[in-house]
């Protein structure tokens, strides 16, 4: 959450001339409400159930760049759909760097609200074992969104060249 998936995903899509899909934005469109409003009116279990259906469906879209919600990958069905159909990048950030962003995130991330800093830190570390299951992990510490997007694009292009060495 708040690592930069939406910002970086959009940049990657532009650089690869692909359509970008942000699952949270799609959910917001479906309900005509913001994520905090959905949490507020329907509760987290309802959001998680809808997020599962929506993410599993969108993960099957071809030739797209998809940004999922930070809590989504904790769900085994979502993990399976993403790992089966997509190339999954894990954007890793150190707690020390991420906690400096908290004031930017608090209003729009209901999961952070009503938690003190030690509970937020606990949540941060608790999620790491699920995030460890991925196709490619990259550290975003001290890197701009643009730098991370370039790195992802370069690594994909390199992999495609290795896969089809004559098609350069
Ligand atoms: N590499 C970065 N360095 C510093 N701030 C960033 C970086 N990437 C994103 N941000 C900022 O962090 C906040 C969360 O970014 P966002 O893309 O919404 O993350 P996510 O989709 O993972 O929740 C935004 O205010 C964004 O401008
Ligand atoms: O980590 C989470 O549980 C959440 C992360 C958010 O998305 P971002 O990861 O894009 O912030 C959004 O799906 C919702 O507020 C719940
Ligand atoms: Mg996002």
Automatic annotation (TrEMBL):
It comes from the Bacteria. Its cofactor is Mg(2+). It is an enzyme of class 2 (transferase). One of its GO terms (molecular function) is ATP binding. It catalyses: shikimate + ATP = 3-phosphoshikimate + ADP + H(+). One of its GO terms (biological process) is aromatic amino acid family biosynthetic process. It is found in: Cytoplasm. Signal peptide: none annotated. Keywords: Amino-acid biosynthesis, Aromatic amino acid biosynthesis, ATP-binding, Cytoplasm, Kinase, Magnesium, Metal-binding, Nucleotide-binding, Transferase. It holds the Pfam family SKI. Its EC number is 2.7.1.71. Pathway: Metabolic intermediate biosynthesis; chorismate biosynthesis; chorismate from D-erythrose 4-phosphate and phosphoenolpyruvate: step 5/7. Binds 1 Mg(2+) ion per subunit. Mg(2+) binds at residue 6. InterPro entries: P-loop_NTPase, Shikimate/glucono_kinase, Shikimate_kinase/TSH1. Substrate binds at residues 24, 48, 70, 127. ATP binds at residues 2-7, 109, 143. Catalyzes the specific phosphorylation of the 3-hydroxyl group of shikimic acid using ATP as a cosubstrate. Monomer. Belongs to the shikimate kinase family. HAMAP family: Shikimate_kinase (MF_00109). This is Shikimate kinase. It comes from Domibacillus iocasae.
């Amino acid at each position: 959450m708040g690592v930069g998936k939406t910002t970086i995903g959009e940049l990657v899509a532009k650089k690869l001339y692909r359509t970008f899909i942000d699952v949270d934005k799609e959910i917001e469109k479906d309900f005509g409400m913001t994520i905090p409003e959905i949490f507020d009116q329907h509760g987290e279990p309802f959001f998680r159930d809808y997020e599962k259906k929506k993410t599993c469906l969108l993960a099957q879209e071809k030739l797209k760049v998809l940004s999922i919600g930070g809590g989504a990958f904790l769900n085994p069905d979502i993990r399976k759909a993403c790992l089966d159909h997509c190339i999954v990048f894990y954007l890793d950030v150190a707690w020390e760097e991420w906690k400096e962003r908290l004031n930017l995130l608090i209003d729009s991330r209901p999961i952070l609200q009503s938690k003190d800093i030690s509970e937020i830190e606990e949540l941060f570390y608790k999620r790491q074992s699920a995030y460890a299951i991925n196709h490619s992990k990259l550290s975003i510490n001290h890197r701009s969104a643009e730098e991370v997007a370039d790195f992802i694009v370069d690594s994909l292009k390199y992999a495609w060249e290795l896969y089809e060495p004559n098609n350069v």
